[in-house]
């Protein structure tokens, strides 16, 4: 990106790599880390074998801030949000923050103004 095209999430100027990337909601990351934790526990013969601090802290964080706990709910949320013309970034932010009104959603993700305006015209 050039200096003129400075990154700005409000306008979805977040870089081509990020726009093309698959963004995950906290609840999706929690499910992935839960599965990985189960695998590590099953493979470990040594009870003193400890997880890395980064893994543990990441797991705690996504568990704490996950709105949806079971896989079916997570899948349903992604499907519902995917019906709209949202970028991956917008979808994951909305899935994580769960705004209650359109105004609240636009305040959190200003790039949604374009979609909200298009729906109302």
UniProtKB/TrEMBL annotation:
Chief localization: nucleus
Subcellular location: Nucleus
Position of the signal peptide: none
InterPro entries per the UniProt record, alphabetical: HRDC-like_sf (IPR010997), RNA_pol_Rpb4/RPC9_core (IPR006590), Rpb4-like (IPR045222), Rpb4/RPC9 (IPR005574), Rpb4/RPC9_sf (IPR038324)
Keyword Nucleus: yes
Pfam families: RNA_pol_Rpb4 (PF03874)
One GO cellular component term: RNA polymerase complex
Top-level taxon: Eukaryota
Span of domain RNA polymerase Rpb4/RPC9 core: 16-118
Segments crossing the lipid bilayer: none
GO molecular-function term, one example from the UniProt record: nucleotide binding
Keywords: Nucleus
Protein name from the UniProt record: RNA polymerase Rpb4/RPC9 core domain-containing protein
Protein family: Belongs to the eukaryotic RPB4 RNA polymerase subunit family.
GO BP field: DNA-templated transcription initiation
């Amino acid at each position: 990106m050039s200096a003129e095209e400075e990154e700005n999430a409000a306008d979805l100027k977040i870089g081509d790599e990020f726009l093309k990337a698959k963004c995950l909601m906290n609840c999706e990351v929690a499910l992935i880390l839960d599965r990985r934790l189960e695998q590590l526990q099953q493979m470990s013969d040594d009870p003193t074998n400890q997880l890395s601090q980064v893994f543990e802290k990441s797991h705690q964080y996504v568990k704490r801030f996950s709105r949806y706990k079971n896989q079916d709910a997570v899948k349903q949320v992604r499907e519902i949000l995917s019906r709209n013309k949202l970028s991956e970034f917008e979808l994951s932010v909305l899935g994580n923050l769960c705004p209650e009104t359109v105004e609240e959603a636009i305040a959190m993700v200003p790039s949604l103004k374009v979609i909200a305006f298009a729906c109302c015209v």
